[in-house]
Please model this.
Amino acid sequence: MQKIELIHTPALLPYYNLQDKTVVVIDILRATSTMCVAFNTGVNKILPIASPEECKMFKDFDFIIAAERNAMKVPGFDMGNSPFEFENPFLAGKNIAFTTTNGTKAIKMAKAMQPYKILIGAFLNITALAKLIQDLNKDVVLVCSGWKDKYNLEDTLFGGALIDKLLPNFEMEDDASLSAHCLFLQYQDNIESLVRKSSHAQRFKLLNVQTDDVSFCLQQDLYSFVPEMEGEYIVNISSAQAC
Ligand code: MLT
Model:
């Protein structure tokens, strides 16, 4: 039976082996949720980038450049990291160079560890994601992006929700996945009220973020596709297959 591991933050990645495993990168608030919105809008591909300085260079190569640090849009960029920004129909067919505090960092770190496949996970596509993981039938590692290499609540809670969809065809290999599943079982009927107590939801309030990114990113199954990495880019294979 295939196994599930969960990693609370990218800082723990060196202690794991990702080779030949399906990796799901999770950044519920907000990078992986926002990436799903971008592909639903019709974005062509997303290039995850480590730093705003490097990201800005892509402006000259006909990319839309999007950068978030500390939950705020970086001045001088076309976009930040709110899912609502990526609903803009102008983005259809465009390539996005994208850097965020945690999510794009987790993607690039996982990519360097030669996994079988990297999938983009969110509540927004959770059921399609669970089906694809089962179809791939590989051991799976859930990589939470956390907050600056520290644990965050919403990514692990999502990991528990995904694990719940994978059981009993997969088995939990570690305490991190077991505790994530227990957290989900405890709060599955009150997800939003729990996440609103999280440090990142409080951060949004302190910053007076005008859009309700928390409730948007906690919606389940808005989308039935799963973005994945192809080379250095994140793409939506299912949209290509639909053509
Ligand atoms: C991110 O990398 O998505 C960050 O976790 C935070 C944010 O976008 O507010």
